[in-house]
Amino acid sequence: MAADKVTLDEQLAELRRTYVAQLPAKVKELRAAHAAAFDADFDQDAQFKYYRLAHSLAGSGAIYGFQVIGDKARQLEQLLKPHAELAESPPATVVRAAVAHLDDLEVLVRESCSAPA
Asked: Which of 68, 76, 71 lies closest to 102 in space, CA to CA?
């Protein structure tokens, strides 16, 4: 009977593996949100979605033990936040900085996905 029980550590490890498997899609979704918000005409709703996705990744990264990913996502979130809250188009320097954060996140995610569990 004891062999049938899944321990809490095993459950947490499985949740972490699932989260790692979802990370590339999360970065892809952030890139798509960036494009929707800024690549053509400014889109206020898309910008807010982009900000919320960064906020979500910042929190979940920390919760699942990926502090570096969470920290980088938090930097992106903080960069986007003032413009999302004011529903204004950010200057080109902010948009370029957001792309740099996305590039960094992509590298961090790739490294996390290739690291042993």
From this structure: 76
Contact 52, 37 (CB under 8 A): no
Amino acid letter for position 99: V
Written out in words, the top-level CATH class of the domain with range 2-114 is: mainly alpha
Give the N- to C-terminal CA distance of the chain in Å, as an integer.
27
Residue type for position 96: R
Residues of 23-33 as b/e, b for ≥16 C-beta within 10 angstroms? beebbebbbeb
Return per-residue pLDDT of the chain as tens, 117 residues. Answer: 455 677 988 998 899 999 999 999 999 999 999 999 988 777 889 999 999 999 999 999 999 999 999 999 999 999 999 999 998 889 999 999 999 999 999 999 999 888 765
